[in-house]
């Protein structure tokens, strides 16, 4: 057996505790697979006294986390502190500068600083790995970086946030309102006390920006991800979608159109024939479409102690085996800065739900407005009483541009016939 | 840009032609990803004159395939000849002996000789890769060898043969008989003129033996795979299964029970809650269950020119990147010879379909026979006229051992009350 791979763990929250447990429980198996043992040498976290359900007294405790980067007895720094900036990125920068490999689960840091850190790791001749940053236990970084590496990939999309998918599928099954399901999810611990990062789509946007770079060979571009969450999804939208043969999912989607990249995180209507429609509860899933392989679909648990630790340790095993190369799908100097497409240019079908005053002629006015904007109607459902006192109208368009639909919405708003905020969702026709 | 990775292609059938097309079409992208170009240096196949729809005149044609192993201008031999023995394995052995890396799509060869070849490659300090051998374009070898490497995996199973899944889902949708769907599939080119390897489960068994070794760290043991195919599946079985909340799928399943490994390829009843139930047409899919990651599900195209070429070239990119290690999930000296479990020891629920004479007292006799064997009945459907002139009875048991059910079947046969061949299928309760 070869010499052990020596690691330092920075951060001992849910994931850090899971990594310790995994390396304990599967110790012998991992040593056989990696060809050498993986050993924790030092640990560091904010609060030494917290009970993490695992014996940490075996490891050297370090109060100054940043000092982990300097230790001669450490081969890999595992960064599980979190946060896009601050101590996490400082530690990673100095660990790489010291020639140490880095494994991280930090999607925000990679989304913001991935290109810089990948370049630094290449210059230092060391590894930067982040399998746990996207879709938890699903080995999707590896699947795109390596498994689908032979393909031109023009589209990658998925369900990248388990909290949102849990909420949407609960709404679907029980006809419940968003706010009620969110409150229940918070009570059960499935949603954070401050759920903003999840339900407003920011967490999914971090992950999508990483997937897009891997898939397209583009420089990571988090700032261009158009992000909205699921707060505006009403029970009536889900019911209308079901009637039309769709399910509502928060989809992170990146695609190349012409010489531009579109990146969006938003609630969409997904046809039942698409595998994402069948992903329920807190599962994550990713679809990648390659020009030779066709459609690949991956599903698994996207968060939690076990799945995330599984991904962190998979990275460690790659490093122990000597099978780790550039952080992205190619050396960072080959990544191209590809510009972002205009949101309005997106062509496709749309779902538009409006609440309108229950008055004669309103429907005629709406349909005329859509016609004038060049939006042709595929189907229209008018039913039920909206909370605002008006009636709900759900419209599915034929293929058109997003700018045409938005133009129609602005015109409706201007005429005063629309009550409250219209809800616009993309329909995925693949 | 670094020096090219120089490959020799042995075998120019569907997959070989696909590899040439892929390396042409995605040439620049692959060079960026791999950090160096991948170039075909020499090609060889049985029939030089056949039109393969791609210009081969650019490459040096070699009549003596075995000479590819000796060439100084070749880094990797890509073996796409096929067959478990004969010229394929001879070429691979000599290529490895010459220190060349080998990439192959040959599931039969790996299932029969994988351990020997992996050991030889390790001793020669070179790579042996075979992503295309299992589930075509799905990067399942990589997902288990690397992505799930941190986990103890106790069960891996999947739909490993697209032809069988196509036939079963056609039967499901149209209520058609096996023989009719097979004939139609042959007419359309979805099934071979001699479909034995596919429909009798041998192709899936090769793939399963490879997955089991990767998942369990066991020496590959193709001889112990209990293999039956789908010839005995009747339209009535599929209808009964649907009524009971199941779909019939040809499942390759390997699991560790105690200190034994069970490997089976056979038609099963899959509950609608299991993702395999939703896999339709010629798609392949694999589920791996890890002790930390939980259930991972992968789906994609399992055969054909594009998906298989995608997997072959992914292996080449790994080699070009210098990211290839031992062929299995661990150095071959660490693989353990784990014995095969007794088929009869399998505990679970069973589906049993019988054709019996339409006579008073037969049902009483059957149920008594089952009771005497210790098999308790969960549900029973008696309906319709069997072709044999009797009536069909479909029984679902409570959990019991396979040996108890087989004992009951033998007793029924002995009593002469059963007409024709009873159909026994495992029910997957996960």
Protein traits:
amino-acid biosynthesis (chains A, B), 26% strand, homodimer, 430 residues, methionine biosynthesis (chains A, B), Dihydrodipicolinate Reductase, domain 2, Alpha-Beta Plaits, elongated
Overview of the molecule:
Two copies of one chain form a homodimer. In chain A, helix 1 crosses helix 11 (305-321) and helix 6 packs across helix 7 (178-188). The first copy, chain A, starts with a strand and ends with a strand. Chain A has 13 helices and 17 strands. In chain A, the strands form two sheets. In chain A, strands 7, 8, 9, 10, 11, 12, 13, 14, 15, 16 and 17 form an eleven-stranded mixed beta sheet that branches. A six-stranded parallel beta sheet of chain A has the order 3-2-1-4-5-6, with helices on both faces. Chain A is elongated. Chain A has helices at 14-25, 27-34, 87-97, 107-124, 140-147, 162-174, 178-188, 196-199, 202-216, 235-243, 305-321, 362-372, 402-415, and strands at 5-10, 38-44, 60-61, 76-79, 101-104, 128-129, 153-159, 226-227, 246-257, 260-271, 283-290, 294-301, 347-356, 377-385, 391-397, 400-401, 418-427. Chain A has three domains: 5-137 and 307-334, 3-Layer(aba) Sandwich (Rossmann fold), CATH 3.40.50; 147-301, Dihydrodipicolinate Reductase, domain 2 (2-Layer Sandwich); 343-427, 2-Layer Sandwich (Alpha-Beta Plaits). Helix content of chain A is 35%, strand content 26%. By secondary structure, chain A is α/β, with parallel strands linked by helices. In chain A, a hairpin with a 5-residue loop joins strand 14 (377-385) and strand 15 (391-397). Chains A and B meet through helix 1, helix 2, helix 5, strand 12 and helix 11 of A and helix 1, helix 2, helix 5, strand 12 and helix 11 of B. Strand 12 (294-301) of chain A pairs antiparallel with strand 12 (294-301) of chain B, so a sheet runs across the interface.
């Amino acid at each position: 057996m070869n010499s052990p791979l020596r690691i330092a763990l920075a951060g001992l929250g849910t994931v850090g505790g899971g990594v310790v447990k995994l390396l304990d429980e599967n110790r012998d198996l991992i040593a056989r697979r990696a060809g050498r043992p993986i050993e924790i040498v030092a640990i560091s976290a904010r609060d030494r006294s917290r009970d993490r359900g695992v014996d940490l007294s075996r490891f050297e405790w370090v109060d100054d986390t940043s000092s982990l980067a300097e230790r001669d007895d450490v081969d890999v720094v595992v960064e599980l502190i979190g946060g896009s900036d601050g101590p996490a990125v400082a530690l990673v920068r100095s660990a790489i500068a010291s020639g140490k490999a880095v494994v991280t689960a930090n999607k925000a840091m990679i989304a913001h600083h991935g290109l810089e850190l990948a370049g630094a790791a290449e210059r230092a001749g060391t590894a930067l790995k982040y399998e746990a940053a996207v879709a938890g236990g699903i080995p999707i970084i590896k699947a795109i970086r390596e498994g689908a590496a032979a393909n031109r990939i023009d589209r990658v999309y998925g369900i990248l946030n388990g909290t949102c998918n849990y909420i949407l599928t609960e709404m679907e099954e029980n006809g419940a309102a968003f706010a009620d399901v969110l409150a229940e999810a918070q009570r059960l611990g499935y949603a954070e006390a401050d759920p903003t990062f999840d339900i407003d789509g920011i967490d999914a946007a971090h992950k999508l920006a990483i997937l897009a770079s891997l898939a397209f060979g583009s420089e990571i571009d988090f700032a261009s991800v158009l992000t909205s969450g699921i707060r505006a999804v009403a029970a009536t939208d889900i019911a209308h979608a079901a009637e039309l043969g769709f399910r509502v999912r928060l989809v992170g989607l990146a695609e190349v159109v012409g010489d531009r990249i579109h990146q969006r995180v938003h609630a969409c209507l997904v046809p039942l024939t698409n595998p994402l429609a069948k992903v329920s509860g807190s599962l994550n899933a990713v679809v990648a479409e390659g020009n030779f392989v066709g459609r690949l679909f991956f599903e698994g648990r996207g968060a939690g102690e076990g799945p995330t630790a599984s991904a962190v340790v998979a990275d460690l095993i790659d490093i122990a085996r000597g099978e780790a190369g550039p952080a992205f799908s190619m050396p960072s100097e080959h990544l191209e800065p590809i510009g972002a497409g205009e949101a309005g240019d997106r062509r496709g079908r749309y779902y538009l739900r409006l609440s309108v005053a229950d008055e004669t002629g309103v429907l005629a006015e709406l349909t005329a407005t859509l016609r004038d904007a060049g939006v042709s109607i595929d189907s229209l459902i008018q039913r039920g009483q909206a909370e605002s006192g008006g009636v709900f109208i759900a419209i599915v368009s034929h293929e058109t541009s997003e700018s045409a639909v938005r133009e129609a919405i602005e015109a409706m708003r201007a005429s005063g016939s629309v009550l409250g905020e219209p809800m616009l969702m993309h329909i995925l026709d693949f």
